[in-house]
């Protein structure tokens, strides 16, 4: 039997509508998100435009800052300082990747952790790892929502996260640990990926290698979440070989239209939550 197709586009639309409803009821000023883009990377430009459009559609204020790719690191840090101090700004994100002459870690750690709606700041990584309230990175947060939609109980499941980036792999592993899964993180030095995949009830692929994971490596009925967005000669493909995985998996995300749209929807959710915390407005943070 073919796997259930997980419709991330529809789930993201529902999440965005839920956020918009709460923004409409938000007292006083509207939540505000500042998005900083350095340079003109075409994919990043598209994502930043989408974030600003999504903000407007949710009734939030979007503050877009575009800087040339020659900008000095000190000037970028000075902009972050201004956004940290701006009372109208509830969320700040600096679009990644940054040009090589800029130290991304330095920029991320300059963002006020309580405005870090990307959840990349080490303070938020630490909060996630220790179960404290903070901000969870949007892509893994979106993955978890999709997994929860198709798996009634996560406790005790074997989960394999393929990829160990700070943005997806590591926080994804933390989220699954918090759900009481038994988590394995595989990466480029993992000796036998197939061995781990064969017993995984949940697979999250976030490694950036087109079609790395094949159907014959999966456990029958596995929930397969594909974070990969690889631009190839044949178009956009994920880290999972979708055609061979479809008849084996229990549920699977497509690329495009799976995890990707959840990233921006979760960003809006995090921004609303930030505004609520900053203004003392109660938001049911678990209710999305
Ligand atoms: N500061 C950040 N930088 C980056 C993040 C991030 O969360 N914060 N994530 C990615 C890029 N990204 C958002 O910024 C993002 C990636 C993909 C999608 C998406 O909807 N993808 C579509 C396909 C669209 C396409 O053709 O490219 C899909 O999968 O259906 C949204 C946002 C790196 N940088």
Automatic annotation (TrEMBL):
The protein's matches in PANTHER family, at most eight in alphabetical order, are given as: C-1-TETRAHYDROFOLATE SYNTHASE, CYTOPLASMIC (PTHR48099:SF5), C-1-TETRAHYDROFOLATE SYNTHASE, CYTOPLASMIC-RELATED (PTHR48099)
List keywords of the entry alphabetically.
Amino-acid biosynthesis, Histidine biosynthesis, Hydrolase, Methionine biosynthesis, Multifunctional enzyme, NADP, One-carbon metabolism, Oxidoreductase, Purine biosynthesis
Boundaries of every Tetrahydrofolate dehydrogenase/cyclohydrolase NAD(P)-binding domain copy? 137-276
Protein name from the UniProt record: Bifunctional protein FolD
Q: Which domain of life is it from?
A: Bacteria
All copies of domain Tetrahydrofolate dehydrogenase/cyclohydrolase catalytic, residue ranges = 6-118
List the Pfam families hit by this protein, alphabetically: THF_DHG_CYH, THF_DHG_CYH_C
Q: Which organism is it from?
A: Sphingomonas lenta
Catalyzed reaction equations:
(6R)-5,10-methylene-5,6,7,8-tetrahydrofolate + NADP(+) = (6R)-5,10-methenyltetrahydrofolate + NADPH; (6R)-5,10-methenyltetrahydrofolate + H2O = (6R)-10-formyltetrahydrofolate + H(+)
So what does this one do? Catalyzes the oxidation of 5,10-methylenetetrahydrofolate to 5,10-methenyltetrahydrofolate and then the hydrolysis of 5,10-methenyltetrahydrofolate to 10-formyltetrahydrofolate.
Q: How does it assemble?
A: Homodimer.
Q: What is its EC number?
A: 1.5.1.5, 3.5.4.9
Positions binding NADP(+) in this chain are 163-165, 229
* GO cellular component term of the entry, any: cytosol
Q: In which pathway does it act?
A: One-carbon metabolism; tetrahydrofolate interconversion
One MF term in the entry's GO annotations: methenyltetrahydrofolate cyclohydrolase activity
* Keyword set includes NADP: yes
